[in-house]
Amino acid sequence: MSKGRDQRGSAGDQINPPRFPDTPPPIVPSGDYSYTLEIVMNMQLSLGKLTEAVEGLKAKQSDQTKKLDRLSHQVYAGIAILVAIGAVLTFFAKGINDVIVHQLLNPPPQQQVSPASPPPQASPVPQQPASQQPSGPAVRRSRRRGRPKAP
After folding, report:
1. Which of 130, 118, 126, 122 is nearest to 149 (CA)?
2. Model pTM greater than 0.85?
3. Whole-Å CA distances, 125 to 75, 112, 120, 142, 146
4. What confidence tens digit (pLDDT) does each residue in 31-71 have?
């Protein structure tokens, strides 16, 4: 057991670590800080441009969303109108179909003259030219009574 104590040291013996130097290391002057400042300012400029671009994209995306919403509402309205027209046509489809088929298969009846009452006919006296027609008061009276006047 004493051997282990010798290696570790005695309880009264304290081993002190070596001391670090009390003086701080010398500061090496870098000379000019303008390069570092220029890099920081360029980064700030780039960050400002990037921020502005993101804001512009947000505004454009908002406008596009409004346009798409309006367009989708118009499409839905068009579909609703087509459905309403389809429903009305479906409701009246049988009647419309019957009318069309009736018109195609059965032509409209034509009026025929009935032979029961024939129209009045003129006497079968042939007409003669005015220069050859007999004249006189008796002929004139017969023309007035028997025949209708010519227009």
Report:
1. 122
2. no
3. 82, 30, 15, 12, 11
4. 677 888 889 999 999 999 999 999 999 999 999 999 999 99
